[in-house]
Amino acid sequence: MIYTVTFNPSVDYIMKLDDFKEGELNRTSLTEKYPGGKGINVSRILKEIGAETTALGFTGGFTGDYIKSELEQRNIIHDFIEVSGDTRINVKLKTSQESEINADGPRISDDNFKALEEKLSSLKPEDHVIFAGSVPGGHKDAYKRLAAKLYENGIPFSIDSEEEKLTSTLPFNPYLVKPNLFELEQITGKSLKSSEDIRDAADALLESGAQNVLITLGGDGAMFVNAEYALKLTPPDGELVNSVGAGDSTVAGFISQHGKGITEQVKHAVAAGSATAYNSDLATSQDIISLLDKVKIEKI
């Protein structure tokens, strides 16, 4: 079973406008809402691909109820911990550009956190945990603490987060770390201008404990590096419609093919990420399948 952990889920409320005028009344041409949060997005794509997944994390209030209901309609197993306060609503404004307004999210108490620790302590070595996204204030070392416990119990985990949330888990040998280019620059404190710069930064993450490093590069695709491979991954052609969830889809594609070889893993990763980027919502299984043979893989 692949478990995703989303500390700060959201209801993603998408508003499309032909033009946005600040300080004036604006009317949308289309509105949509989806269960969101990086780990939840990963679970949604895993389900599309056919992998067994359970969504863990924290939900509260009417928005939390909406997320659980939507996941149930998609036949996605969830085992969320109820918190006081409402799960946040994140607004995505789509005009000629794409803007986001993300709320902070509800407080997670110490008891809430301990409840999550207990759930993870019951997992087995054949399971896999994916940590994804932000962590509300008060638990800045959450990923480090949970990663240490998983490592102690022999349970593999992967992480898609930013700066110290990601780097703090490296001593516990994450199976996959997936920063985007901006996050990798934050981690290194450097501007990464060339493929060589990116490769060097990925190698540093490997030396610090990561087993596999997958860096997403937006429209330029991705780079994959581990002890055996260094690969440039070029996505299929397509029109960018939606950047939300593309990185999460990439993670899901990679982990879904665990045990089937690196070629299948990176191919599914890029196909899933691209399929989401070319759709208004997260990709469907058919979207992903249609792009698999169009992913270009080159050794660096």
From TrEMBL:
BP GO annotations: carbohydrate catabolic process; D-tagatose 6-phosphate catabolic process; lactose metabolic process; small molecule metabolic process
Top-tier EC class: transferase
GO terms of molecular function: 1-phosphofructokinase activity; ATP binding; tagatose-6-phosphate kinase activity
E.C. no: 2.7.1.144
SUPFAM superfamilies: Ribokinase-like (SSF53613)
This protein's pathway: Carbohydrate metabolism; D-tagatose 6-phosphate degradation; D-glyceraldehyde 3-phosphate and glycerone phosphate from D-tagatose 6-phosphate: step 1/2
Family that this chain belongs to: Belongs to the carbohydrate kinase pfkB family. Belongs to the carbohydrate kinase PfkB family. LacC subfamily.
Protein name: Tagatose-6-phosphate kinase
Organism: Lacicoccus qingdaonensis
Lineage: Bacteria, Bacillati, Bacillota, Bacilli, Bacillales
